[in-house]
């Protein structure tokens, strides 16, 4: 029985981001860089087939002073639970195809697996020649994501290492998560507070994560990927904790779903909603463009839209609702039409 329990524990998690370091003998020591700041970061996480995540991190740094070279390290924590812990070719056993490009030039890197401070197990580090002004650094790698009892996957990403750069903020931060169309997952409310900070084609529902000690989280029901989080002058106060359940019942909150669907034809035309819930939901949709002067009137809808809306209005809150199917059905009705 004990062997079975170990088998279904989470296999591995990854903690990563760029930080500045100094070398003390063969030991890396994290430091704070007082001059070079992070102007922009774009973090793109794409779920591929066969348990693999593709991770791309694009930084724009700014060096206000003369050219200098510093040690930069990309951090990754030791695997936990029932996981392979032995290094592979000296590197993290679950990271593959790591590369770093700075200002268009591919850089050589080394791997230090003896970092004790801040509980970091692996650092992929390199000498970064920062010219004066704008500098761009791109990391790219694949990662064999975590899985376990009831989990499709889990992915943790440390954002806060960016606070070791000058100013302790990211001036322009973008997070893009592509988990695939019609997918479902949770993100803990750690580095963000409100649902309206996300651009999502689908539903977002407040919840408490069972996998992170009942911490407040958002449950995402994605109709079309990806989802996007953007923040200016991003002072990081938490990390990214993303988890996807293996067996989902698609239990949408029926009352809210019906409210959304019943107002979908008007939202597609840009109606500005007085309801905070509806306004927040539609404002998060990438296709929504508000038109303050548009008046929502049933009789102005196309006949096939009225028929679709009548069907939705006839549904009860106790009805099992396939949100995706109804949303797609409506989209097919109005495809390539200029709605008025």
Give an overview in words.
The chain is elongated. The strands form 2 sheets. Strands 3, 4, 6, 7, 10, 11, 12, 13, 14, 15, 16 and 17 form a 12-stranded mixed β-sheet that branches. Strands 2-1-5-9-8 form a 5-stranded antiparallel β-sheet, with no helix packed on it. The chain has 5 helices and 17 strands. The protein has helices at residues 2-7, 254-268, 276-283, 303-313, 323-333, and strands at residues 18-24, 27-31, 37-47, 52-63, 68-76, 95-102, 105-106, 110-112, 122-130, 133-144, 146-148, 151-157, 166-178, 183-188, 198-209, 215-234, 240-245. Helix 2 runs antiparallel to helix 4 and helix 2 (254-268) runs parallel beside helix 5. A hairpin with a 5-residue loop joins strand 15 (198-209) and strand 16. The model is unreliable at 1-15 (pLDDT under 50). Helices cover 15% and strands 43% of the residues. It has 2 domains: 2-245, Sandwich (Immunoglobulin-like); 254-333, Methane Monooxygenase Hydroxylase, Chain G, domain 1 (Up-down Bundle), CATH 1.20.58. It is α+β, with helices and mostly antiparallel strands.
């Amino acid at each position: 029985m004990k062997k079975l329990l170990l088998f279904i524990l989470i296999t591995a998690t990854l903690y990563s981001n760029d930080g500045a370091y100094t070398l003390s003998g063969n030991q890396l020591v994290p430091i704070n860089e007082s001059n070079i700041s992070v102007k922009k970061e774009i973090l793109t996480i794409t779920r591929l087939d066969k348990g693999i995540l593709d991770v791309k991190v694009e930084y724009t740094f700014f060096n206000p002073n003369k050219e200098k070279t510093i040690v930069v390290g990309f951090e990754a924590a030791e695997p936990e639970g029932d996981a392979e812990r032995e290094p592979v070719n000296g590197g993290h056993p679950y990271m593959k195809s790591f590369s770093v490009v700075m200002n268009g030039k591919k850089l050589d890197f080394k791997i230090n697996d003896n970092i004790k401070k801040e509980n970091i197990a692996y650092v992929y580090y390199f000498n970064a020649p920062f010219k004066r002004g704008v500098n761009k650094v791109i990391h790219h790698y694949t990662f064999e994501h975590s899985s376990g009892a009831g989990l499709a996957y889990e992915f943790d990403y440390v954002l806060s290492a960016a606070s070791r750069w000058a100013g302790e903020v990211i001036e322009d931060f973008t997070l893009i998560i592509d988990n695939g169309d019609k997918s479902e997952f949770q993100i803990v409310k750690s580095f963000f507070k409100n649902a309206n900070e996300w651009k999502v084609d689908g539903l977002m529902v407040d919840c408490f994560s069972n996998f992170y000690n009942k911490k407040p989280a958002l449950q995402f029901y994605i109709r079309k990927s990806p989802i996007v989080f953007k923040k200016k002058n991003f002072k990081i106060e938490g990390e990214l904790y993303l988890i996807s359940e293996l067996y989902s019942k698609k239990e949408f909150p029926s009352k809210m779903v019906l409210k959304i669907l019943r107002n979908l034809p008007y939202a597609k035309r840009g109606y500005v909603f007085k309801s905070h819930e509806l306004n927040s939901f539609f404002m998060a949709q990438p296709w929504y463009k508000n038109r303050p002067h548009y008046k929502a009137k049933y009789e102005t809808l196309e006949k096939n839209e009225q028929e679709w809306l009548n069907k939705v209005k006839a549904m009860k809150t106790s009805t099992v609702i396939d949100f995706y199917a109804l949303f797609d059905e409506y989209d097919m009705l109005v495809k390539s039409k200029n709605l008025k």
